[in-house]
Amino acid sequence: MNAERGKVVDQAQATKKSYRRIATEEAFAIPEQMDAMRGVVAKATEYDPDLFLWNRTLGGGTLYERLLDLESERLRIMDQDGVAMHLLSLTSTGVQMLDADKGTALATLANDRLAEVIRRHPDRFAGMATVAPQDPARAVKEVDRAINRLKLNGVIINSHTNGEYLSERNYWPILEAVAALKVPLYIHPRAPMPAMAAPYRTNHLEHAIWGYQAETGLHGLQLITSGVFDHIPDLKIVLGHMGEAIPYWLYRIDDRFRRSIPRGDRPALKQRPSDYFKQNFMITTSGMNWHPVLQFCMSVLSADNIMWAIDYPYQDSPEAVEFMNTAPISDEDKEKLFHRNAERVFGIKA
After folding, report:
1. Catalytic-role residue among 311, 316, 331, 333
2. How many CA atoms, within 13 angstroms, populate the side-chain half-sphere of residue 179?
3. Is 311 a catalytic residue?
4. Within a 10 A sphere around the Cβ of 168, how many other Cβ atoms?
5. Sheet containing 281-284: order of strands
6. Contact by Cβ (8 Å): 17, 325
7. Does residue 342 contact residue 87 with C-beta atoms inside 8 Å?
8. What is the mean pLDDT of residues 116-140?
9. Environment class of residue 319 by beta-carbon count within 10 Å: exposed (0-12), middle (13-18) or buried (19+)?
């Protein structure tokens, strides 16, 4: 009985403890992005799972308003829940469903707006740059501008672009540019491409319930097996949602990779797939407020490779805060997940 009472007291103390909380996957939008996607939705003639969700978002309501808000309700909610900082990124699908010219121009505008709001609130916001991978050469230039001139903290790409992954060689210059600037690349989910999404459509499994992690986890594994980390060993990738299920499968991935019949079109790797995941990837807790999964991922990856996130406004801020406040882990590890790892990986001032 005394032991149980002690646990309750410990949890209450943890909830009240003052942490610096940096949330590392927090979405925003700008009106011009909304207008551009309204045009894409209007022209669509076939079902696309991303456009299905865009159509709902563009209809207005709380989600629409919260994506466009940066300095009003968002800051009030952060204050209410004791969140020090949002690491902001342009909401999925970013600019990746637009043509190259429009996507590049909108990425530039979004990054400028992001840098402006960070300048107004340097203690409350940091940010990741968006780029248009559909034009790799101009994406490389925007990476350089966003990091060196705008002083943003990383780059975000919303998984596939026109059905292609960053593991394909024409996108490697983007990965090289990110690595050279010593900032991370966050691969954020989007729905599977229409051809991949077809079997998921029964009961709308193509979205966050299953399709997002299946698609984004595949993207991560494609990067690993492409040999890109042998070519760019300093590249750092961030995946949300506790690693998009990859940590759970690392044993089997290694085992099947080792036992597979060699294929001439798959590169030989210098290390096991799991080694690259542990060395070149970080994960965040976005949208996975569940202690058993957190404990498992910590046992596989260590507390040094995990960062806390809310996934605002798609997830509730109070739940994410309470989840980490009451996590059955040491206070030192909570400090790492709440802020120290984000400070180190994204270059946020401690």
Report:
1. 311
2. 17
3. yes
4. 13
5. 22-28, 85-90, 125-130, 154-157, 185-187, 237-239, 281-284, 306-307
6. yes
7. yes
8. 98
9. exposed
CA distance readout (Å), 225 to 82, 116, 183: 40, 39, 22
Give residue 190's Cα distance to chain centre. Answer: 10
Q: Three-state DSSP class for 217?
A: helix
Amino acid at 53: L
Torsion angles phi and psi, residue 89, rounded to 5: -150, 145
Phi, psi at 281, each rounded to 5°: -120, 145
Q: What is the mean pLDDT of the chain?
A: 94
CA distance 227 to 342: 27
CB 43 within 8 A of CB 1: no
Q: Which two tokens stand for residue 287?
A: 């949208």
User: What beta strand segments (E) does the chain contain?
Assistant: 22-28, 85-90, 125-130, 154-157, 185-187, 237-239, 281-284, 306-307
Q: Which residue has the tokens 């593991």?
A: 167
Half-sphere exposure of 57 (CA within 13 A, CB side): 26
Is 37 in contact with 56 (CB distance < 8 Å)?
Answer: no
What is the pTM for the complete model shown?
Answer: 0.94
pLDDT digit string (tens) for 156-189?
Answer: 999 999 999 999 999 999 999 999 999 999 999 9
DSSP state letter for 338: I
User: Would you put residue 281 in left (φ > 0), alpha (ψ -120 to 50) or beta?
Assistant: beta
Say how far apart CA 127 and CA 217 lie, in whole Å: 23
Residue 113 tokens, joined:
């707006």
DSSP state of 305: G
The yes-or-no verdict on residue 203 having pLDDT over 50 is yes
C-alpha 53/C-alpha 330 separation (Å) is 39
Output phi, psi for 23, to 5 deg.
-90, 125
What tokens appear for 317 in the block?
A: 């801020």
Contact 310, 25 (CB under 8 A): yes
Alpha-carbon Rg for the chain, nearest whole angstrom, is 20
* Residues constituting the chain: 350
Q: Using CA atoms, how far apart are residues 133 and 135, in angstroms rounded to an integer? A: 5
Q: Which of 148, 120, 126 is nearest to 22 (CA)?
A: 126
